[in-house]
What we know:
The protein has 330 residues and is an alpha/beta fold.
Amino acid sequence: MKILSIETSCDETAxxxxxxxxxxxSSVVYSQIKDHQVFGGVVPEIASRKHIELxxxxxxxxxxxxxxNLSDIDCIAVTSSPGLIGALLxxxxxAKGLAYSxxxxxxxxxxxxxxxxxxxxDNPELKPPFLALVVxxxxxxxxxxxxxxxxxxxxxxxxxxxxxxxxxVARVLGLGYPGGVKIQDxxxxxxxxxxxLPFPKADGFDxxxxxxxxxxxxxxxxxxxxxxxxxxxxxxASFQKTAVEILITKFLSAAKNYNYKNLVLAGGVSAxxxxxxxxxxxxxxxxxxxxxxxxRWCGDNAAMVGVQAYxxxxxxxFASLDLNASSRAF
Length: 330
Ligand code: KG4
Ligand code: ZN
């Protein structure tokens, strides 16, 4: 059973071939970072145009690398939500054309669920139920994975997503785009206790990051106005430590409340070294099992889409050729 999967929800154009759910035969990702860098962030219009340009070449490449023919493909899968609408539409439309011409079923995949599914690739033992923390540029959520295609959203962010705040803080500090990894690198040379940043309050297991973001922006303005020399590394380290502690505190209290000992980390921000190390340490102390994706599966890719699509396929979650994309998550 081979699935050809397509991901174009943001600024990565990606295609993969996945066999029997968890075996990645090929995964090609074109990161558009360079195309957006000069603008300091993703420009939706440019992302769509770039996807259009790249998609057919990447499908060919994925097929070739997997050493299969298009006629060997049993199913076409595509991220249909959430994401940038114009970007999603490129992948969805291409997938429809392929499914139509090959006369194969079409499976729509939710981007957030596919991030969770990235964890199945390297861990054959991982299976639901478990509790997932999904942290990306667009989402911050704690999700009960009741079964492969059955989810219960426990909490979300009231305002900004954590990845978005990493990107914003990086921009304010003049570190550039993409911000997450730049903050991480800068923080390595900084003192994380240099500044006491606020730990925002949000009810229950919900997140809130706008207070932290504003606090960093105000701090930078204050230092600039006073004429002092700004220590970027210290601010990056203090910010990163606070953001990571917010995520870990909420996630672990949700785990306790909902009685989960099997935990999974997912999404672009799960590449963050401090988050990975701190969470590994805390879960070890509590005798919890933690699964984190290999670095290559943290950011957007199509392999994770093919993996989730396999379970959607088994549950007959097919789309007809009038499938539309949606920018909203659910
Ligand atoms: O999942 P993803 O690739 O795209 C979305 O679905 O949004 O996540 C991208 C986000 C960006 O905000 C990026 O800055 C962040 O993940 N990110 C990181 C790191 N690597 C990527 N954030 C913190 N530390 C990192 N090492
Ligand atoms: Zn993503």
